[in-house]
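input
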Amino acid sequence: MSLRNKDNDTLLPKHRPRLALTMGDPAGIGPEVILKALADPGLSKNFDVTVVGSHDLLSKIYAKVLVNGNLVPLANPENLSVADVPLEETIKSEIVMGMGNAASGAASFAYLEWAIARTKAGEFDAIVTAPVAKSAWKAAGYDYPGQTELLAAKSGTQKFAMLFVARSPRTGWTLRCLLATTHIPLCQVPKVLTAELMTQKLELLVNCLQKDFGIENGKIAIAGLNPHSGEQGQLGTEEQDWLIPWLEQERRKHQNWQLDGPIPPDTMWIKPARAWYEGIDASKVADAYLALYHDQGLIPVKLMAFDTAVNTTIGLPFIRTSPDHGTAFDIAGRGIANATSMKAAIELAAQLSNIRLAKSLNSL
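output
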């Protein structure tokens, strides 16, 4: 591995956040949105970024996007810090723009493995991941549901969760949504959801709000599982059987927190939507929303914040953020990919890193 950096010999202050930014699947839009994000003059420069991937592939994509009439400024790879992760030449030769395959899956997997190892070694404070294709990972022989699970496995993390964060460009209100379950079939959700799992996710959320967002005594809204939260057992019994008793127990445990729920899933998102689009009294909305399964949380999040939402994995020993979109193979290399979510992911990683670094310095 070689590190390309025009300021290679400059020692950086330890309190300046250091971000590892993985290229994701090189056949997708990840490299393009990285180049667009890092070229944006509006992106804060109070941190240092190393792009983790393949310098020659990044340069080829840069040239291709320019040729295709891209109208948004692009960062020149020659002016970036790029960690060249070793790949076999046969793998590089089989990577085709717009087509996820075993080669692109092997490359994106190698990029993330490298970033995790170097972050665990203390070289970086956070990892920002561009999107990968789970099908490409599987074709390459890697059986992980997604990057979140690989990050947890490689860091030895048993308890983790996916938190989606977005700041409204209309009102400035911050939406935070945690998923209790993630990439599992819908029919498995009632079997996987337990009081023990909910306790684990709630503890992770409370700890994150305190440690990373400075919210000591806040409000968390917790969704029901069934329509109308079961309608007192008429539309499902999970709420009556264990969810309501569990919530009463957690209220006694977290007396400084307001835990609302179980809220009917079809009405839980009305106040957040008003806060996002119109702006309402902060006391009427929660500091975070706990959804019980993937689409229950991500449909409203993506309706409100498709271009700005950031996925952050909480519970890891380091910070990890990612744009809330996929590889978009169908538009890769055409110069039309939107980098807003990637910029938001970079900024959130830097913000959270600054908070943790400040706390670390204050504790010395």
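quick obs: The first helix runs from residue 30 to 39.
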